[in-house]
Amino acid sequence: MARTPSTKPATRKSAASAKVGTTVTKDNLKALGADRLADLLVDLSEQDAVLTRKLRMALTATHAKDKLGKEIEKRLRTIQRSRGFLPWDRIKPLATELDTLRRSILDDVAMTDVGQAISAMRLLVELAPSVYERSDDSSGYLSDVFREAASDLGTLWGRHAGRDPAVTVRDLLTLLDADGYGTCDHLLASCGEALGTAGATMLRVTLVTRLHELPASRGKDEYRIDRVRMQTLGHLRDLADATGDVDAYIEAVGMSDRQSPYFSDIARRLLDKGRAQEALEWLDRETDEPSRFRRENDDLRIEACEILGDHDTAQAIRWKIFRECLSLPHWQVYQRHLSDYDAIDAEEQALDHIRNFPVKSVALSTLLEWPALDGAARLVREHTSELDGRDYGALRPAADRLSESYPNEATLLYRLLVEAVLDKALSRYYSYAAKDLASCRLLAPLLTATDGMETHEAFMIRLKAQHKRKLGFWSLIGEH
User: Fold this and answer.
1) Regarding predicted confidence, which is higher, 330 or 39?
2) Of 92, 225, 362, 446, which sits 20 to 30 A from 243 (CA to CA)?
């Protein structure tokens, strides 16, 4: 009896085509036609105030560009007058709307009227305090938008032909002095073109005068004076960056009581200007005390030495950094500068140093990244007691990496992870410990007899005896 050809493939193809046609994509929506889309948007806008505002802005940008700035200002003032608290789920939508308005000011309004764009962007910047006071911006969405707006304002000032530098200085100081939320942190850096030489000189004189007029600090009770002094010094450094004047930056640092945190900043700016020898001299001011800037300063020293042609010193610093913290990027650059003959000896010396590094979890991760899996497995075997099962960020990836070729060593790591959780009764991590124990069970058939290595069965008996009361953990074992 002849079989009837199946129609299932055709049916599946038709279903797939239908799904493609009904998926909300740009191409599918275009197929509806302009009239149908317009009808849908009108219906939706009657129920959605946010959509209505977006459509009105889009229509204004298309048909009445000269009125767009005023329309944006109208919306910003409405937001400014609002007093209701903004819950967490309204923060991101508001930030998205403000960012859309910001980009419209910068890209659309400024094309027809820079003055109007400046007015609208400044209003957006000045909106920040009223919004912060009625919201919790722990996500940083709002602060990101407001900082971008402040930076854009400086750019717009620079695009305003014929703008008086004195007016820019006045407006700039007004915003900086009123800024209690860090909104204008990037404003001055964007004002180089707007200030010009005359404006920069004027601003610098004003800031230095302010600094000299501040009374001397008398300790903890003079926090306000110290804060104003630090802010003013920060403005002087930002002004130097805005004008590309590294010597002015150095002078501003010299006015501070604490200069050492800025050594690397000065060196970076000197290097960018091709003044490598001066950069090294500033870096050499670093004391022998441990410093959070030391690694950055070492990298700057390497760069300066290479510029000056002192390749031996650069290599010595790279090797020192590798020995201190097992930095593979520094090792890799160090190795590239060696001859083939020297590289062989250096590699063995480096591997030997890694194996003997005192922090075994760091050594283990470095060997895996090298990659030297055999060395990593050997380290696990010989230094199991020195590895901390709480260091799951290093041990779990290592166990996963070793599990295929080195089941014994991977099992040792998984067991450390399990016992670290159970020993401290960290119930919130029981699910992770259950997964690690499941990995031990999967590897059990692959284990080979070695001195001192428990079998999986013996490990389970011991684990149950020591932690039999942790019912929350044991209830998860069947799931894995």
Assistant:
1) 330
2) 225
Ramachandran quadrant class, 16 (left: phi over 0; alpha: psi -120 to 50; beta: rest): alpha
Hunting for tokens 């160090």 — which residue is that? 334
* pLDDT classification of 45: cutoffs 50, 70, 90: low
Q: Structural domain boundaries of the chain? A: 34-230, 360-479
Locate tokens 């007015």: which residue?
A: 119
CA dist 105 and 116 (Å) reads 9
The amino acid that residue 400 corresponds to is D
Residue found by looking up tokens 């129609």 in the block: 7
Q: What is the largest CA-CA distance in the chain?
A: 107
Do the beta carbons of residue 123 and residue 70 sit within 8 Å? no
Find the Cα–Cα–Cα–Cα dihedral 213, 216, 221, 223, rounded to 10°.
50
- For residues 328 and 361, give the distance between their C-alpha atoms in angstroms, rounded to a whole number: 15
pLDDT confidence tier of residue 18, bands split at 50, 70 and 90: very low
Bigger pLDDT: 346 vs 27: 346
- 160 by Cβ neighbours in 10 Å (0-12 / 13-18 / 19+) ranks as middle
Whole-number Å distance between alpha carbons of 291 and 99: 39
Q: Which two tokens stand for residue 466?
A: 């020591």
Q: Which of 145, 142, 146 is nearest to 126 (CA)?
A: 146
Look at residues 332, 331, 382 and name the one whose alpha carbon lies nearest to residue 355.
Answer: 382
Three-class SS of 130-163: HHHCCECCCCCHHHHHHHHHHHHHHHHHHHCCCC
Q: Which residue has the tokens 């609208």?
A: 120
pLDDT at 52: 63
User: Is the bond preceding residue 371 a cis peptide, omega within 30 degrees?
Assistant: yes
Q: How many other CB atoms are there within 10 angstroms of residue 419's CB atom?
A: 19
The DSSP output letter for 455 is P
User: Which residues, listed in sequence order, are joined to residue 128 by a DSSP beta bridge?
Assistant: none
